[in-house]
Amino acid sequence: MAVLLGIDTGGTYTDAVLFDDETRQVLSSAKSLTTKHDLSLCVSDATAQALAGLPDFDPSTIGLVSLSTTLATNAIVEQHGFPVGLILIGQDDKALDRAGLRQAMGSDPVLFLAGGHNPDGREREPLNLDAARPQIKALAQKVSAVAICGYFGTRNPSHEATIRDLVRTETALPVTCAHELANALDAPRRALTALLNARLVPLIQQLILAVGGMLDTHGITAPLMVVKGDGSLISADTALTRPVETILSGPAASVVGANFLSQREDCVISDIGGTTTDIAVLKNGKPVLAADGAYVGGYRTMVEAIAVHTVGLGGDSEIGLDEEKCLKVGPRRRVPISLLARDHATVIPTLQTQMDRVWPKPNDGIFALKLRDMKSGTLSKGEQRIWDMLQEGPKSMEQLLAGRAPEQPLLRLVDRGLVILSGFTPSDASHVLGLQSNWNTAAAELCAKLTARTERRPGMPLAEDARALALAVIDQLTVQSCAAVVEAVMTDMPLRSATPFFKAAFSSNTTKEKSENLVEFDITLKSPLIGIGAPAETYYPEIAHRLRTEFDVPRYADVCNAVGAVAGGVSQRVQILITSPAEGLFRVHGPAGIEDFNNLENAASTALTLAQTEARSRADEAGALEVKVETSRDDRIATVAGSFAVFIESTISATAFGRPRISTSA
After folding, report:
1. The Cα angle at residue 160 between residues 159 and 165, in degrees rounded to 5
2. What's the CA gap between 266 and 390, in Å, rounded?
3. Residue by residue, what is the 3-state secondary structure of 256-314?
4. Residue 248 confidence (pLDDT) above 90
5. Which of 310, 293, 312 is nearest to 245 (CA)?
6. How far apart are CA 470 and CA 273, in angstroms?
7. pTM of the full predicted structure?
């Protein structure tokens, strides 16, 4: 019996399953709360629980460990991450105004170097390494990783590679080149992809080190693999250098797992977790891929991935007000107050003290909690003051602000992922309504009362009482979830102005009865809706009802991502471009540079060999066994003067795939 261990580390829960590769059956499963301050704790706990489900099983005989994670996705959605230096070669400040690059950079430094290439791959301006060296050394003092993008680097990557080697020589920082991640044109979007990759390197390193330590503890020597955004697998070593490929890893694993568990050929899969809801479409038993790259957190990357519509909406989403002072859910995560109170005895007395006041305050029911440790000397004075106050446990916002700690330093700590806020969430609303009871219901009810009396306008409280607030929160979560499903499946239709229609179509019957509109809207989803994730059974029956569609929660839906982590295979795709910069000249743009030919077929033959070799090498590096390669050729020919054919360009593709290596040493 070949037993595989699948692990999924999400924003709220970490799941583990033991999977029989021969019978394709789940043998045991477990869940544990994700401990972001120390990922080794939740990974070890979930794995230990899963192993406990098979008392006589020897963990050293596990043949493969596969990991999926939403940590990369969540970090982008919540705009958290490590400081990164971006090096742009042959580009100026205007490049930052495209593809959301300036917003993604935030306050991180950008270094502009002379150089770059022309569209035909010829050098536009030489690099000046003597000038670049001191600038790179200065940049390294401010960041934890470096991303590099050269002008037309896909047509000739030599400048990116040269600067990469210089960064590695002068610093000990991890470095990412844009040409290693994407081969399409659009330098700012390639720069964005490289930037996100560099920002995620430390995060993925922490996770893989945590899993590696757990495997050593249990005596598991099996290969460790990670799920990519397209649902295929890569080795842990590959994931460490190309972590951006794990964007949408968790959602991709959930689609693979849902497909395996539900045995549905055509359906809409919605995975609701604590932080995000991820929605994908399954057609003919295969997930639909994103034509233009993974879209997450408002950014369109160049990462090949399953077409997943990701929104900041989950059981642990923050509750707030929109521009019109109406209730909204998300997009950021908060620790549910019922969970915080379960682990910290000071929470309920603080809530009660706030409740005993006759008048409400804006920050009632909101706490701050330290997430992870930080090296001394890296915080401002204001940040350090708050940091010191949080050393002994969570503090209410009222306590923090009363200590003359301004709010902006606290929000900066939250943005950097060092501190997280806690307050009333949909999970707490579920506790108030009796839909959930695994944490501290008393804290949820107290916080609901406090939040309900918060004034959306002077003299106008948010809700009449705790139960009314809980019902309103769940209803708003339902409305936003229905809208997210519709937006996900209607990818070819702009829906930016559809919010009022969604609200009219998906609000509860009680809300509709109060409406004075003379027109009523109904929307029907024509494919079955498969709900997965821990909160799916709580929220999705009503969501499917309002979408007027069939609904199913498959067995093991609560650990679907972990199942998907071990149900997939390895796949790597490489594309080589052939252009014609002059009549009778055909240029192959390969991984190492350009090569010219006088004959198209000779150029195509060389490009095919390069693509096959590179794809096979990547698949082998990613951990594939018995690799097979499929190739295709796409020529673009223009017809001029009625019948004269002119060659434009050709794309040679090679896809290498195979099953993951499974240890047979046991």
Report:
1. 95
2. 49
3. HHHHHHHCCCCEEEEEECCCCEEEEEEECCEECECCCCCEECCEECCCCCECCEEECCC
4. no
5. 293
6. 19
7. 0.67
For residue 38, give the amino acid letter: D
375-403 residue pLDDT tens:
555 778 888 888 888 888 999 998 888 75
* Pick from 479, 169, 399, 425: nearest CA to 317: 425
- In angstroms, the CA 408 to CA 389 distance is 15
The CA distance from 237 to 235, in Å, is 5
User: Which of residues 568 and 226 earns the better pLDDT score?
Assistant: 226
350 Cβ contact partners less than 8 Å away, ≥ 6 residues apart = 367, 396, 399
Q: How far apart are CA 203 and CA 9, in angstroms?
A: 12
Which of 220, 205, 234 lies closest to 44, judged by CA? 220
Token digits of residue 27: 């043998």
d(CA 632, CA 347): 61
Q: Which of 170, 127, 121, 117 is nearest to 146 (CA)?
A: 170
Residues 489 and 525 sit within 8 Å (Cβ to Cβ):
yes
Kindly provide the residue ranges of all beta strands, DSSP E only, lying in 472-535, ordered along the sequence. Answer: 529-532
When pLDDT is cut at 50, 70 and 90, the band that residue 513 belongs to is very low
Look up residue 659 and give its two tokens. 């099953």
> Which tokens belong to 337?
């107050």
d(Cα 326, Cα 331) in Å, to the nearest integer?
15
The angle at the Cα of 93, spanning 92 to 97, to the nearest 5 degrees, equals: 120
- Phi first, then psi, for residue 197 (nearest 5°) are -60, -50
Contact 6, 45 (CB under 8 A): no
Selection from 41-50, 174-183, 409-418, 501-510 with the highest mean pLDDT: 41-50
